[in-house]
Each structure stands twice: as structure tokens, then as C-alpha cells.
Amino acid sequence: MQNLKITNYLYIFYSLVFLLNIVHVFWANDILFFVIGVMGIVMLIINFPRSDKVFRILGVVLLAIGIFFFISSDVSVNEIPSYFAGNISLLFLLSMLPWMNSVVKAGRYNKLLQSLLGGNVKGMGSLYIRSEVTMVSLAAFLNLSSATISQDLLKEQLKEAKTKIRNSFIAMATLRGYSLALLWSPLEILLATSIFITGANYLEVLPWMLLVAILGITLDSTIGKLIFRKHDIGSNSLTSSHPQFQKKKLVEFIAALVLFLVVVVFLANVVQFDFLFAVTIAIFPFAFIWAVVKKRKTSFQQIGWPTWKKQTNNLNNFIVLLLSLSFFTEALNASPFLQYLQDPIVALEGSPILIMLFIQAAFLVLTLLGVHPIATMGIFGGVSGLLIEALPSVTLTILLASCAIATVPSAPYGLIVTITSVGLGVNPYQIVLKNLPYTLMCGFIGIIVSMITLYIY
């Protein structure tokens, strides 16, 4: 019971670490960075036994290999704490995301999903297009809640359909639509990480990521309509009520999204903040002002505060993954063994298409083996200098982000696949098999768009 009480207040300790990280942004001091690293080690020790088995295994592997790399280098032991400070900024972003989700719930924008998914449609083919477009439109802000809400609504709407067909429809439409929204959302950790690695300008990357998303939804919605065109919904169709409410909420939602993007771009391009930091510090003030303007301040506080505390207290999986990954990446960069990882890329120098295919294959294979895409992203971050020599930063960002996000519907141990697996009562690998063609298609679209940018940048 005592242990339970302590874990309920971990958010205070984490907040102190994040506060020091903010101070370091404005005052880059080596001693302060060392202190942040020491606190990062404490975070790792606290959360290792609390994390899921797959993350513990991944953490042990990353730390073990990192220790091997460190021993092979000539770096002083005094540098070790600093090796754990590099990814604190990513954890800070993850801890702030619940505030944006809370203002969406406080403003009842989650009900917009029901309005958009409701209404009479001719068949499952048409419903597939509507479902995917709805997910792409709203998941950028609603995040995981968009998938769970839409899946519940679709289960009700398709309860007269055959179970196998219904499950395939839901697993495909919601997960694919969800990943297509992540491609351009500044709140997506994989996109933010890719920009963090390459140092690219989000404003330059955004149009190309939108192009990947548009091509992806066009192709996949067409394929989905063809696959499900022969299947009927049945008589139990949800009705779409209050069309005026639906229109007003959608306009508000899109306006808020555009305004948030403007704020982030301003902080990154005019104030010259790092993109990741710009997104992170913009979330709470923006969400709070949004709630005040919509006269939902009380609801926002009632939902946001306990949600933020709970989510921050339970960052254990990401703490183990990201801090272990930080040590691994820094040790790799200091090790002579970095050359061995660089050799395949050097061998492919002059053949950008082969480098791109290699990166896509690495994300896909490692994801299927249970490695989180962020971990794979970190491995490529270890050789980012060499990759940037081979590819422009904008091209590399598009490539890393699209190939990583394309694996989201096909990650057997990913959170969204796990949630869907439990909700539908199916094996996660059945969901993976359904979405594997999409993952390959989306990855190839990312490669094609990346190739186009080679001739521009």
C-alpha cells in the first residue's frame, strides 16, 4: 500500500526533471545536464520493475549493448549520467499530451465522431471511406480516443454483419485512418522524433507529409471500398442528428487545429525554439485558452488534472525505452563500432533508393519482431550524421516518419493494436496480417515522396 502511495506522486519528481529540462533549454550548462542525467537514471531504476515485460527486455538489450559500446570507447565514466539526459525532452512531450486530449473531451468534440460516422450509407464500402476520412480528420487531436470511440460506434453500427467481416472492417478502417492522421500531426511522437533527429524545419516537412497522407487515404479508401463493396451494413444504422451542431463543431475543431499549427510554427521559426520544445510548451497554454474561450475551463480542469497525473505517473514503459535508448545511442556514437553500422549505408552511398528501401525494411522487420518504432528511430539517429550526408534533412525526415508511422497498424505489441485486439476479441497478429499490405503501401508512398524531394532540396 505504501508503494502504491509513492507511485501516485511520481509526477512531482518527473515535473522537477522536466522543469530542469526547460531551464537547460535557456541555460545550456554542462553541470545542469549532468544533474538531469542523474535524475534520468533514478527514473529508469524506479520504472524498470513497473514496465511491461516487452519493454524490460528491450531496455535490458539496449543497456547491455550500450555498455559494450561504452567499454569499447575511450570516454570517461563521468560522462555516463549525461548519456541518459538526451531523451528527457521526448518524455516531457509525452507527459503534456493528455492536456490536449482533455480539452477535446471537455469541449465534447469526441461526440463529433458519432455525428460524422452516423447517417445512412449505401453499404460497407461507402462506410469504409467515411470511417477513414473521419479518423484522418479528427485523430490528429483526439489521438487514441478517436480509435476507441470510433471502434465502439462501428461495432454497434455493424452488429448485424458477420463477425469476421465486421472485425476486418474495424481493424482496417480505424487503424489505417489513425496512422494517416499521425503522418502530419505535430503531436505525434514519431514525427517529432524524426524532426528531432534531422533538425529539419516542420514547415518545410508539413506539405510533403500531407501529400503522403492524401495519397495514402486516396489509395486505401479506394481499396477498402472495393473489398467491402458487396457487404451490407444491415438495418441497424446509426443516425446522424443535429447537422448544424455537427457543422459548427467541425469548423471549430479545424480552426483550433490550424491555430495550434500556427502557434507551433511561430515558436519554431520566429522565436527559434527547437520544434520538439515548441510543440511541448505550446500544448498546455493553448489547451487552457481554448477551454476558456469555449467556456469549458471547469470541465477542462476536472478532466485534465487527474488525467495528466495518471498518465505522467504511468510513463514507465516510455521511460525505460527512451532512457535506455538514449544511453545506447550516445554510447554508439562514442564507440568505434559505429563504423560497422555505417558500412551498409556507406556501401549504398550514391543509391538513395536503396538506402530508403533499407530504412523501410528495418522499420518493418523490427516492428514485427516487437521492437518499438521509436527504438528503431533511435538506432538510425545514431548514424544520422551519415544519413544526412546521403539525404537532405527534409527528405530524411519524410522517410523516417512515414516508414515509422506506416508500421503503427502492423505493430503486434503496439498500444493501438493491443487496444483493438482486446476490443474485438481477436489475436493481434490477425490485425497485423490485415494491415501489413497497407504498411508496405504507405512506406512505399513515403519513399516515392522522399525521392521527389531529392530533386528540390
Automatic annotation (TrEMBL):
Source taxonomy: Bacteria, Bacillati, Bacillota, Bacilli, Bacillales
Organism: Halobacillus halophilus (strain ATCC 35676 / DSM 2266 / JCM 20832 / KCTC 3685 / LMG 17431 / NBRC 102448 / NCIMB 2269)
Keywords, ordered alphabetically: Membrane, Transmembrane, Transmembrane helix
Residues annotated as transmembrane: 7-25, 31-48, 55-71, 83-100, 175-199, 205-228, 249-269, 275-293, 314-333, 353-374, 386-407, 413-431, 438-456
Descriptive protein name: Uncharacterized protein
